[in-house]
Amino acid sequence: MRIPIRDVTPETKTAEILGWVHEVRDLGGLTFFLIRDRTGILQVTVPKKKVGEQVLSALRDASRESLVRVRGNVKAIEKAPGGRELVPDEFEVVCRSESPLPLDVVEKVPAELDTRLDARFLDARRPRVAAVFQVRSVALQTVSEFLYAHGFVNISTPKIVAAATEGGTELFPIAYFEKEAFLNQSPQLYKQMMMGAGFEKVFEIGPIFRAEEHNTTKHLNEATSIDIEVSFADHHAVMELLEELIVAVYREVNERCTSALEGLEIGALPVPKTPFPRLQYTEAIRMAAEATGEPIAYGDDIGTTAEKAIGELMGEHYFIVDWPTEIKPYYAMPYEDNPTVCKAFDLMHPRMELSSGAQRVHQHDLLVRQIQAKGLNPDNFEFYLEPFRYGMPPHAGWGLGAERLIMTMLSLGNIREAVLFPRDRHRLTP
Ligand code: ATP
Ligand code: MG
Fold this sequence. Notes:
The protein is an alpha+beta fold. The chain has helices at 53-61, 113-118, 120-123, 127-149, 188-196, 235-256, 258-263, 281-292, 304-314, 364-373, 382-385, 402-409; strands at residues 14-26, 30-37, 40-47, 67-76, 84-95, 153-154, 160-161, 172-176, 179-183, 201-209, 222-231, 278-280, 318-324, 341-349, 352-359, 395-401.
């Protein structure tokens, strides 16, 4: 019976393993193999004189990254990884790997990201890469469990849609019979509609599609969004929930991903402290101007350079709050006493934006006016506007980029590192 490599200890007497040939060293009379599975690495030592012809012929076939089955005796030995080695009675090549490899799994030669992504299945055999996706898996599980525990309903909304969430040019048109259709850029409109259905607290973890033209290290054309919407809540309530969630994810990853974090050479993550500072938009642009020497006019967006400058000064997670109504989407609620400012916020990591959210407009007439003010045609949003005519509760919510969360948590240099098969302008396969 096969056992995971992690479970082969000096106390194990005999063991059978299945794994990939990580490295081979032939010293004439002795051949050393390092065999790897997702749980660890084991040295297999073959004294050629003491093994049969069947093992010897398998050895010749066992090229690097071949999948092999080895059965034999376990011996304690100080110098080998994990303080043990396996001396085989049986050694079988289950599936031979071709040579040369498109990518060196052992990482002796650092490969360009593009080369790695082209051979992603091999790249993901690297413990360090697999570690990112273990962390991602635990992070997303934590998000779901956290939201379930807070009474949220998990929903799935359509990804093929007729209208843009916010108008705009970031849309991928698709061929949908004789109709005009797009890939959805956000579940925004649908999660709000479910507030009208009385669901009260909903969440969705799903793909969003953005036709971002430019290649950056923090944009994908297909990303994963963690979205929530909550009735009878204002922006303050959902900001508190968001910071609590971020802390829960950091804690859980520390608790459950120790070996992955070690593999990534980062050790325990510093858990952010709550409450995160709330920085007014006006203060944020003042700080950025002072740091960069480039003034930002009130009502201008905070670009990448400004974002970085503010992040450096803040040095921790923070919110930018009280944005000018004119630069936030039509569904953000303006303050009653000063409608030029709205109840929108961005959650920032020192490196970049992680999430945008707001208390939403729930009054039909105001929503129609705000859509018009953005130069959009309310007729195109009729399906969305209808629930607002039949008892829409006040509500608030946010969307959090899963890849940006993982990327910032693990200090990855490029967002593509946080996706198995990233989609960008130049990448449609694998
Ligand atoms: P940015 O200004 O950084 O491009 P955004 O303000 O356009 O982001 P939102 O529409 O506010 O993005 O989306 C909410 C969240 O979804 C963002 O804070 C981000 O974490 C994530 N997100 C949005 N677009 C992308 C993308 N192209 N690639 C990866 N994540 C994204
Ligand atoms: Mg945003």
